Every structure is written in C-alpha cells, then in structure tokens.
Amino acid sequence: MHFCQKHSLLSTSKTNETPWLQLQLMRRLTWAVLLIGSVIASIGCSGYSPAEHRVDTNVAHDTLQRVLSQWQQGRSSEDCLAMQPPVIVQDMDWKSGTQLDAFEIVAPGEARDANYYCEVTLSLHSSDSPPRSKKVVYLVGTSPVLTVFRSAAP
Questions:
Q1: Cβ-Cβ contacts under 8 Å for 53 (sequence gap 6 or more)
Q2: What is the structure's pLDDT at 47?
Q3: Is the pLDDT assigned to residue 116 strictly greater than 90?
Q4: Fold of the CATH domain 51-150
Q5: I want to staple 131 with a disulfide (CB 3.0 to 4.6 A). Which of 4, 37, 40, 125 is the partner?
Q6: Cβ contacts of residue 52 below 8 Å, gap of 6+?
Q7: Pairing of strands 129-141, 87-90
C-alpha cells in the first residue's frame, strides 16, 4: 500500500468514519467550485465599460504638468492629494526625496484606453548623487479619479 493510499481521506477503509469524511470533503469541494465559478461569472458580467473610463487627454496632460510643477517647487507627492481635484501620485524618485530641477514633456502623449502615456525628461538631483537627466514614461488616468504613476519600464 502506498503512503498516499494509506493516509488519504479518499482511500477505502473499513472504518465508518471514512464515508462521512469523503462526503464532507466532496461537499466542501463542490461549494468551493461553485463559489469560484460565481465570482468569475460576476466579474465577467459586471457591466464594466472601457468607454466610461476612457482617458481625457487634455485633462491628463494638464494634470501631469501640474503634478510635475508641484515636485519642481519642492512639494511632496502627498501634497497632490490636496489639489483640486486631488491627484494620486506614485514616483519612487520623488518619494525618496530626489529633487526635480526641470522637466520637459518630450512629445504629446498617447491615449490607450484608461491611461495617457507620456514621455518626460527629468533633470534630477539628490544630496548623495550628482545631477542627472532621465527619460521616463508617466501613465495618467482621469476616471474615476486623477492618477499619475511613473512606469517601471522606460
């Protein structure tokens, strides 16, 4: 007899508890499959429409300029939450205390579904490194809230 057969709940045994355990296990598996199936079905039928959350390129471009100006003026990324309307910002250089000396939006951004992709050249410096220039891509969202996230890939 294999170890798996000897210690499995589904193995056949002469005790009276095994059929009860098998039944309990099958009931739990059935409920788990039904629960997972209903969650997947509800996600697929949620009525989400990409058109409802399509990016507004004018608002996105303006938001990116305002956010980068905040950084250039020495404000924190959390200060953008106090802007009207509030903007959620994620940039690891900014968060780590790196200062923005200048920025240049390289070209008009590109709208792709819910985000506006925009390439920006940043002139940065920090206390522990010399000034440097860096090309990055920002993803800006305008619906349901304003967001500015720096892409992990250039």
A1: 113, 114, 141, 143, 144
A2: 57
A3: yes
A4: Nuclear Transport Factor 2; Chain: A, (3.10.450)
A5: 125
A6: 143
A7: unpaired
